[in-house]
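The protein record now logged underneath.
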Amino acid sequence: MYQKKVKESNEKKVFHYIYQKQTNLSIADISNDLNISFPTVKTIINKFLNANIIKEDLKIGSGSGRKAQYYSLEKNFFYSIGISVHLNALKIYLGNERGEVLKEIVIKDDFFKETLIEKIDDALDEFFSEINDQVKGKIIGIGISIPGIIDNHNNIIEITPSIRIDLNKIKVLSKKYNLKILIDNEANLCAITEKFLGIGKEFSSFVVLNISSTLNMSNFKEKDFYGEFFLKASRVNHMIINFNGLLCECGNKGCWGKYSSELSLIEEIQKINPNIVKLKDVFKNENFENKQIKEIFENYLDYLSIGIKNIIFMYNPEKIIISGNISQYKEFFKDELIKKIYNENIFFRGSETIVFSNLGERSVSLGAVMLPLIDELF
């Protein structure tokens, strides 16, 4: 579990302020808004200028008097590499401090194996060979998302109950590339993406439900304006919603992930039409209008709503952000899902609690890119 604690320094506070506003920044405004002395802010601004983190803009003013100097956040002053591990693919991204993707590759393979780190190493070798030296010099770290947990007590990465990887392999990889490597559950990284790049900017506290090949959730809480936050992934995919239901790989029956993940939906629909292999195929008119497919999807929403109701009862969240690939197709099911969740409910909050991500299937990968940047800069 990654927990960000902001360093108690004026420099960090000023940077967080600059990152949030990005343009039309003046020393006077920063000083007043943060209650930091003008000379202190000026010293920090000069340091950021020398490091090419910010740049001077045109001075603003009228007449012959002294004009105010304004600043804005520079672009591409740092880079980061994000790696997201999926059931049958490995995605590697090069991004900048704004989360903009500049290079990406997708490798199709079975990555739920004990050889995961070795495969990541091979992929990184090729990825770095295609990046110029100027960019390499500005890369500050590598973030890795996994559909599992980091067990620091036992020093392992648990992908599934049967696949566990020695965490020391990450240290070896970090030494080889001379870069810090941060690794976390994909739900946590999805939450980071939503907070810094997505709809979560508007909220100080939220739950993100990431619906992908697996099903996972993270609880995000921002502690103060200066960037300190806490997040924690929950293994809701093993929350039992049908005790006589389908057998899960964990050994229990009726786990939520067996009914409400993207993979479970595709597998069920393939019993009707084996040619449907991707989620986008489900929502094509000729498929989605099929009576049998619509019935399967209706059952899918039933199970999805049951799990979301349980989350609301357990956490009473201010917001639930539904993320992952399925969020791209919300127009097909949003109203029906919300109706199922809030029909005859006794919740403290209303249906405005449920919102949908606008980042689609990239939310996890972007979180992996952002993790080293946030760790370094905030």
Summary: The chain has 14 helices and 15 strands. The radius of gyration is 23 Å. The chain has three domains: 10-73, 79-190+364-377, 200-358.
